[in-house]
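Researcher: Quick test of sequence recovery. Tokens follow.
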């Protein structure tokens, strides 16, 4: 028997092609996707270190970050510090939080620029670096807020360069999908850029080890709905990258 285009199965397929459409933007995505109850701003730093200097770099970073944490006059705190294990080698990654948003960032920079010990640290650190770059981030409203955790853990930073104009659609899909990735407490934080490379998303995950990572990710595929999230978000990605990272000794995220 001839099947018409309006067959029930065809209708289901046709509807799926137009599902999850996002309303036209009526506000900046920073207002639509970020947490309203906090005014936190985040900074992520990527430092490419000379291989022979990594040990000295880690020790110096530890000392300076401890001093900043002891001084309540600075409205900033390091959330996590890591060395990349798999991905870009001889790299340090730091995630900072500024409680109070851009004014807190400005205040912190002003105070650091008059702190002679910190300026001496920056000068010494510059001799150890090959290159560095940073980004200012906001956190997605539907993600866990990063809090200190005991270890040992490994961390995965998954970075997505999105097609410009698709951040809202990404957020809509992940607001539904994040529930599939909470079973093992692996979700640490989700962020999107405000300054630096734009339309960049960072998802930070914690696992006991690489085997646990594989098992946790495989389990997600057994949950109804996870495959739909992947189906609708993959076309939004221009480029993606995964880093496996080991916490530094002083990192609050262990």
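Model:
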């Amino acid at each position: 028997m001839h099947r018409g285009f309006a067959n029930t199965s065809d209708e289901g397929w046709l509807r799926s092609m137009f599902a999850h459409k996002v309303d036209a933007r009526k506000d900046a995505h920073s207002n639509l996707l970020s947490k309203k109850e906090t005014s936190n701003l985040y900074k992520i730093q990527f430092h490419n270190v000379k291989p022979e200097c990594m040990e000295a770099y880690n020790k110096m970073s530890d000392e300076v970050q401890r001093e900043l944490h002891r001084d309540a006059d600075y409205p900033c705190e390091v959330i996590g510090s890591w060395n990349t294990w798999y991905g870009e080698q001889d790299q340090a990654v730091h995630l900072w939080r500024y409680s109070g948003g851009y004014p807190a960032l400005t205040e912190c920079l002003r105070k650091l620029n008059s702190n002679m010990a910190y300026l001496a640290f920056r000068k010494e650190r510059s001799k150890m670096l090959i290159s560095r770059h940073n980004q200012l981030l906001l956190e997605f409203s539907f993600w866990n807020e990063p809090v200190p955790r005991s270890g040992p853990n490994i961390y995965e930073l998954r970075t997505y360069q999105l097609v410009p104009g698709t951040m809202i659609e990404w957020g809509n899909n992940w607001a539904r999908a994040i529930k599939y990735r909470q079973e093992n407490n692996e979700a640490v934080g989700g962020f999107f850029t405000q300054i630096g490379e734009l339309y960049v998303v960072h998802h930070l995950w914690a696992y006991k080890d690489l085997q646990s990572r594989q098992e946790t990710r495989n389990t997600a595929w057994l949950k109804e709905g996870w495959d739909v999230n992947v189906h609708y978000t993959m076309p939004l990605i221009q480029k993606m990258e995964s880093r496996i990272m080991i916490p530094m000794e002083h990192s609050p995220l262990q």
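Residues 181 and 217 are 8 Å apart (CA to CA).
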